[in-house]
Amino acid sequence: MLEFIRKRPPAEVKASAVGRVVAMAHGARSAAWTARDTGSLTRAGFMGNPIGFRAVRMISEAAAALPLICQDHVTRYEDHPVLARLKAPNPMQGASAFLEALYATLLLSGNAYIEAVMQDEAGGVPHELHILRSDRIHVQPGPDGWPQAFDYHVGGKSHRFSADVVCHIRGFHPQDDHYGLGPLHSAATAIDVHNAATLWSKALLDNAARPSGAIVYRGVDGAAASMSDAQVSRLQEELDSYHMGARNAGRPMLLDGGLDWKPMGFSPSDMEFHKTKEAASRDIALAFGVPPMLMGIPGDATYANYAEAHRAFYRLTVLPLAGKVLAALSRFLGAGHGADLELRVDLDQLPALAAERDAQWRRVSEATFLSASEKRVMLGLPALASEPS
Fold this sequence. Notes:
The chain has helices spanning 19-26, 38-47, 50-64, 81-87, 95-109, 183-186, 188-208, 229-242, 268-288, 306-333, 354-365, 372-378; strands spanning 2-3, 68-71, 76-77, 111-117, 128-132, 137-141, 147-154, 157-162, 166-170, 213-217, 259-263, 342-345. By secondary structure, the protein is an alpha+beta fold. The chain has a four-stranded antiparallel beta sheet with strand order 1-9-4-5. The longest helix is centred in the last third of the chain and has 28 residues, at 306-333. It is elongated and about 110 Å long. It starts with a strand and ends in an 11-residue tail after the last helix. 24% of the residues are buried.
């Protein structure tokens, strides 16, 4: 769900009947996050989890690399102030870095905030664009329930942005009116399982060089006996020094004085632990909309081949996300250039959709009952100013 923030109508203009109720319900809250806050989820699911990290990077990098076009109902622009601003949003970022950070922020928190720095009061395209960290933003609802300001908190200080200089893009949240829900929140349980399985594997690796089994003491004459405390301590020290850790893997053990080695294998529950980790990996990929085949996760046979999975990744995940973000940017940046200004993806330049594009062009070109302008509109091009005779 997208929420484009511009100047709100004056008080005498009619607003939603539930607006004031929403404002009362959220006025006392400074944030909508539960115990699974954005900072903790980002550390656990992105910075500390390879599946979540790769899923976010795959989607954000693919979406940021999409070729863009800017047009209205008459003209497709090669050069336009909106395109120029996206190519150089601020002195520290180019178009690719800016869009990648924008998409990644939306995936991680369900919210993305863009600050517009205006050069003067004349309006038009902003002088600079900056992405604000979503975990530092608190929405301040107005009397009508719509956000009237955004408070940015960092280092014990706070700065208030007016609503007309911030574009808030948010994912759909069924139980929150002002904050969005991202795929990282839905994948949180699977991420916890995956991280726990990784820690278990690491602990097993640290102890794998110690042979899996038990040392039995039968005494010097073979009769049942107990070891003294000094003997137990000495044996434990030797095991820790010479048979623990990856560098000592496979090192033979020398036993004397009535000691006997009894090997033991993995239990069935230990053997199932690896399958649990693979299942959690698929759940994480599913929450983000990345086919597990593209991430090298075994056990998935949803798509017949890699090309089909790659095409589904763009059609079902990358393009819908890019469409939402570009629609918000079109309204935010193009407010002073006509209501019908549109930023969208140039599907004709996507190699992943080349087969679909060729089939569509062939169907449209063979439709003799369509005029040239109608064919152009069907292909996403502006209609001709006048039909050729």
